[in-house]
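Weekly sync, protein design subgroup
Attendees: M.S., D.O., the rotation student, P.L. (late)

Item 1: inverse folding check
M.S. brought a backbone from last month's batch and wanted to see whether the design step gives back something sensible before we order anything. D.O. pointed out we never logged the input encoding, so this time it goes straight into the notes. Structure tokens as presented (319 positions):
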């Protein structure tokens, strides 16, 4: 007859079950994505794109922003002080190549909070998609605004314009994707569900990753833990996108209306919520400039992500 398990064994098993539930057996230890290019006032205080990738901290870097496009406008980007021109920045070519050499995915982010962008019709969506494909994604142009560099994809951060045809833009961009030259599509909606500007586009199911902005949105941002959990669960269960990142500000001042989570609060209060979803992929940060202003917040939370994910394995090892 087998002996009865000791109370210590029972407690250990309960701890394992709890940690397993918290970890959710989601997508590994969690990756970090970050926006780059909006460095604030001169002189430049944000690391270069290459330096950002060389930290070894980021899996995705979004160049922000292409903020003029659609309705027949000549597309323009605004990279603050990183580039003196709104239409050409060939100096980024070697830096993009360096990022890709290191295995970092580099995307061009569309939209942002300030700009002149809109899609007026399905034909307009096709025209903008063609422009992006040919100039940034390896299409027919031998050299684009970033020289010969070929980006990995396009990020949608629309916070204005008319939402009607953003889905058409995504459809046309994804049509260019092949096994040899995939076009990665990501989106950064506001965390209230559904997002006004990007909800319809995201519902197409064409996006590879969605990183909702859980900041500047009191109903769903920390320290509103209940709201944070409610909207995270809604996004990850109602949307077919396979991978979600939790969007956070990299410093308190990065989000004037709130949502900043300290490294300690992240591991104790937020990760136990988001890791319950098997779609959890990591953390998205706004932005590299604010990351640096906050003592390289990304590197601080990178340790937290690894620490949290190792808790279960450490318990199992001690059985």
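Designed sequence read out in the meeting:
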């Amino acid at each position: 007859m087998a002996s009865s398990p000791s109370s210590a064994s029972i407690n250990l098993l309960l701890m394992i079950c709890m940690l397993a539930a918290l970890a959710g057996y989601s997508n590994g230890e969690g990756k970090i994505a970050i926006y780059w290019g909006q460095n604030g006032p001169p002189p430049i205080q944000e690391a270069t794109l290459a330096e950002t990738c060389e930290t070894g901290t980021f899996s995705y870097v979004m160049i922000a922003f292409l903020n003029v496009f659609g309705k027949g406008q000549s597309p323009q980007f605004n990279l603050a002080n990183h580039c003196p021109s709104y239409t050409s920045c060939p100096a980024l070519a070697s830096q993009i190549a360096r990022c890709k050499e290191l295995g970092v995915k580099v995307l061009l982010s569309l939209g942002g909070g300030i700009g002149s962008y809109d899609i007026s019709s399905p034909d307009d969506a096709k025209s903008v998609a063609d422009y992006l494909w040919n100039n940034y994604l390896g299409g027919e142009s031998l050299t684009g605004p970033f020289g010969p560099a070929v980006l990995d994809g396009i990020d949608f951060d629309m916070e204005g314009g008319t939402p009607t045809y953003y889905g058409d833009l995504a459809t046309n961009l994804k049509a260019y994707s092949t096994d040899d030259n995939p076009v990665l599509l990501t989106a950064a909606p506001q965390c209230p569900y559904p997002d006004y500007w990007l909800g319809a586009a995201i519902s197409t199911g064409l996006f590879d990753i969605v990183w909702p902005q859980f900041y500047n949105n009191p109903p769903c941002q920390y320290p509103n833990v209940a709201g944070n959990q409610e909207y995270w669960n809604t996004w990850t269960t109602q949307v077919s996108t396979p991978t979600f990142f939790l969007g956070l500000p990299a410093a308190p001042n990065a989000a004037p209306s709130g949502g900043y989570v300290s490294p300690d609060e992240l591991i104790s209060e937020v990760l136990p919520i988001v890791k319950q979803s098997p779609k959890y992929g990591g953390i998205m940060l706004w932005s590299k400039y604010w990351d640096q202003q906050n003592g390289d917040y990304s590197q601080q939370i990178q340790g937290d992500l690894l620490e949290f994910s190792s808790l279960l394995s450490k318990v199992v090892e001690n059985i």
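Discussion: The chain is about 35% helix and 15% strand. The chain has one domain: 22-317.
Action: P.L. to compare against the previous round before Friday.
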